From TrEMBL:
Organism: Kribbella albertanoniae
GO molecular-function terms, A-Z: metal ion binding; O-succinylbenzoate synthase activity; racemase and epimerase activity
Any Pfam family: MR_MLE_N
Protein name as it appears in the record: o-succinylbenzoate synthase
Superkingdom field: Bacteria
Keyword vocabulary terms for this entry: Lyase, Magnesium, Metal-binding
KW Phosphoprotein (keyword) present: no
NCBIfam families to which the protein is assigned, alphabetical: menC_lowGC_arch
Biological process terms in GO annotation: menaquinone biosynthetic process
EC number: 4.2.1.113
Length: 369
């Protein structure tokens, strides 16, 4: 296959409910949709789901645009390849910039799956026909507001709830949710905000029967994660710490995690995300697929990845409607009692709604070989 044209579309959509993490809040998202065309005219779409600001990862929507335009698209245009696993080799010299790479990598996979008439999940080697979705709930103004949000999503059938935590919003909200729902599959995510001086708050969370504590410490501080894991029985899950398969090897050797959150964006694409899955699976570490409030294209890729055998915990692949009034794909991703069906049609398994994209596009660029 040979990619002869690439378009980047910066598309802006409002979230239906403002989302707040330990570092920032957001209500409007700009993601870059990647449209690759090969010499036969076949098209593959991907999504660069970088947050606008560099608070989750170092990238921003502007750095992703720049990397795409100046380095990544030029690296792949006109190159011959047989399998989507070969595509990342064309930009192997580019360090980091995982979100930007991810959008192009996914578009390559979707193009290949579409051209070969196989569903994306099958192209990846996935075998599950449905995946279980959990919800990730942001920091709310009050505990009552949080309880309302939890209730709303449990009523919609989601079987697992993750709460964002931060110093001053940890033990008390967790105690309140646990008291209201003693049996709920509940976990927390700190997005790396805690330091060693907060260890008493983190240890206090150990009594609530949480499924995991996700990324309590800074991304590079693997030693702090390993130390805390020795002191608590709740499994520690890593998110931001693992950007490469090599990061995962080090974390495993330090016993810094018992569960892995795999994000396609954070790993730089489906090829690397699947490799992380394979390594974790061999090591006996359960994985789940994290989200970045993806629009439908990235969301569909998350569903496909979650069909791999090691994804034994609920993934953040909630229905499009949790996030957006209207999505860039038809039909949108839907969840029935917290279960999402893995599409069985070729490629992404959804149509891309180019009219809706055109109505919400902020900027477009086309590059050709
Ligand atoms: O840590 O998982 C995270 C959103 C933005 C930045 C970081 C994270 C998140 C989420 C969103 O939790 C999960 C979703 O897409 O539903
Ligand atoms: Mg996280």
């Amino acid at each position: 296959m040979k990619i002869v044209a690439a378009k980047l579309h910066r598309v802006r959509l409002p979230l239906v409910h403002e989302f707040r993490t330990s570092s920032h809040g957001k209500s409007l998202l700009d993601h870059i949709l990647v449209e690759l065309t090969d010499e036969s005219g076949a098209v593959g779409w991907g999504e660069i789901a970088s947050p606008s600001d560099p608070y989750y990862a170092p990238e921003t929507v502007e750095t992703c645009w720049l990397l795409g335009e100046r380095y990544l698209v030029p690296a792949i245009l006109g190159k011959e390849w047989e399998r989507p696993e070969e595509v990342p080799q064309f930009w192997a010299k580019v360090r980091g910039n995982q979100f930007a790479k991810s959008g192009l990598d996914v578009a390559g996979w979707v193009l290949w799956a579409t051209s070969n008439d196989v569903p994306l999940a099958a192209a990846l080697g996935g075998s599950r026909s449905e995946v279980v979705a959990g919800v990730s709930l942001g920091i709310e103004p009050t505990i009552d507001d949080l309880l309302t949000e939890v209730e709303r999503h449990l009523a919609a059938g989601y079987p697992r709830v993750k709460l964002k935590i931060a110093p001053g919003w940890d033990v008390e909200p967790v105690r309140a949710v646990r008291a209201a729902y003693p049996e709920l599959d509940l976990h927390v995510d700190a997005n790396g905000i805690y330091t060693a001086e907060h260890s008493s708050q983190l240890k206090a969370l150990d009594e609530f029967g949480l499924t995991m504590i996700e990324q309590p410490f800074a991304p590079r501080d693997l030693l702090a994660h390993a130390r805390l894991q020795q002191q608590i029985s709740t499994p520690i899950c890593l998110d931001e710490s693992v950007e490469t398969v090599d990061d995962l090897k080090i974390a495993l050797s330090l016993d810094a995690l018992r569960i892995l959150n795999i994000k396609i964006s954070r790993m730089g694409g489906l090829t690397a995300a699947r490799a992380a899955h394979d390594l974790a699976h061999q090591a006996g570490i359960p994985v789940w697929c994290g989200g970045m409030h993806e629009f439908g294209i990235g969301r569909a890729a998350n569903v496909a990845l979650s069909s791999l055998p090691g994804f034994t915990l609920p993934s953040d692949v909630s229905a499009s409607a949790k996030y957006y009034a209207q999505d860039v794909i038809t039909p949108p991703v839907v969840a029935t009692q917290g279960v999402v069906q893995v599409p069985t049609t070729a490629g992404l398994g959804h149509d891309v709604d180019t009219d809706f994209i055109r109505q919400n596009v902020v900027a477009t660029i086309e590059l050709t070989s």
